[in-house]
Design goal:
Layout (H helix, E strand, L loop, with lengths): L10 E4 L7 H11 L3 E2 L2 E6 L2 H4 L6 E2 L17 H17 L4 E4 L4 H6 L7 H9 L5 E5 L4 E4 L6 H7 L2 H17 L7 E5 L14 H15 L3 E6 L7 H4 L4 E4 L2 H11 L5 E5 L5 E4 L16 H18 L1
Parallel strand pairs: 1-3, 1-5, 3-4, 5-12, 7-10, 8-9, 8-10
Antiparallel strand pairs: 2-3, 6-7, 6-11, 11-12
Helix pairs in contact: 1-11, 7-8
């Protein structure tokens, strides 16, 4: 968080895709906390009509949006992206402590000329971050996928010593700065079964991952790996690290969604601002039905407040 931000600066919740469950869970979280968490007031960012209640807590976008549950509209794209831009600008200036983003619908935004694969890349662009890293976090596990949305056949080619080193450094720095862990411990998973079995089941561990781990250790970090992924996530194993760096999407997301399906939080590391979001999508099929579960959004707001406060210490 910028040094000019105060301990009572608001936490901003963007509306996300108006036709999805984002506005619903944002309002539910707002009401859960009574409009304030700790010293931080909660503010909603978007078209006030989309939020309906609590209009006094809305920071409005100039672009207008209409909410038709389950029916995404290209005309809403400008307001969706503007809400994110407003929230990020406020965090960069120190006027806000953190941003919590409700889910967006990438297909609609891309059809409107958005030009970014998703939230993470857009946030990196807006903040000038060199590298943004996605962490999925809960009270039981923190995981980071090195590679994210790509075919499994392409994963091995994207695993480089530099990528493992850079991502590990960002994660370890964030654990100290944003989570208040003075001596963070990182576990690094292997790519292949049994972490390659000494080269019998693949060479990426010895050729790429192990040298990156050694380089992180040389910088004074507490890092172990490459470790077999199939024994990395049971109860006893999780006590030995504060976060796990995994090599691909499902290797990271299956364990955390098994342990914390309803209240996991998506955190973007490597940004000069605090950003969290619920770990789910727009859920058009249940939007407006009253079935949306707000636990992940509530957890995202809690984590944003905790991270913002940690940056003040």
């Amino acid at each position: 968080m910028p040094s000019s931000a105060k301990g009572d600066a608001p936490i901003l919740i963007t509306m996300g895709e108006p036709a999805g469950i984002g506005p619903e869970v944002a309002l539910a979280a707002f009401e859960h906390f009574g409009g304030k968490i700790g010293a931080h007031p909660l503010k909603l960012v978007g078209d006030a009509s989309v939020f309906g209640a609590h209009a006094e807590a809305v920071i409005p976008t100039k672009a207008r949006a209409t909410r038709k549950p389950g029916q995404p509209d290209l005309a809403n794209a400008a307001a969706v992206t503007e809400a994110i831009e407003i929230a990020v600008a406020a965090c960069l200036s120190g006027e806000a402590a953190a941003v919590v983003t409700a889910p967006i619908h990438k297909a609609v935004l891309n059809a409107a000329g958005f030009g970014f694969p998703g939230h993470t890349e857009f946030l990196a662009h807006l903040t000038g971050a060199r590298r943004a890293v996605m962490m999925l976090a809960s009270d039981r596990l923190r995981v980071v996928p090195l590679t994210i949305h790509m075919p499994l056949a392409q994963v091995a080619g994207e695993i480089t010593k530099q990528a493992v080193f850079d991502t590990g450094e960002i994660v370890l720095t964030a654990l100290r700065r944003d989570f208040g862990i003075l001596n963070p411990r990182l576990a690094v998973a292997g790519l292949n079964p049994h972490a390659g079995e000494d080269g019998m089941l693949g060479g990426e561990e010895d050729a790429v991952i192990a040298p990156a781990v050694a380089a992180l250790r040389a910088r004074g970090f507490h890092v172990r790996g490459p470790l077999p992924a199939d024994t990395l996530f049971h109860d006893e194993a999780r006590k030995a690290y504060d976060a796990a760096l995994c090599m691909y999407h499902d290797q990271a997301l299956i364990p955390i969604k098994t342990l914390n399906f309803w209240d996991g939080v998506n955190v973007t590391l490597g940004l000069p601002i605090v950003r969290t979001s619920p770990d789910h999508g727009t859920a058009f099929d249940i939007a407006g039905t009253g079935k949306a579960d707000s636990r992940s959004m509530i957890a995202a707001v809690k984590m944003a407040a905790s991270m913002a406060d940690a940056r003040l210490k």
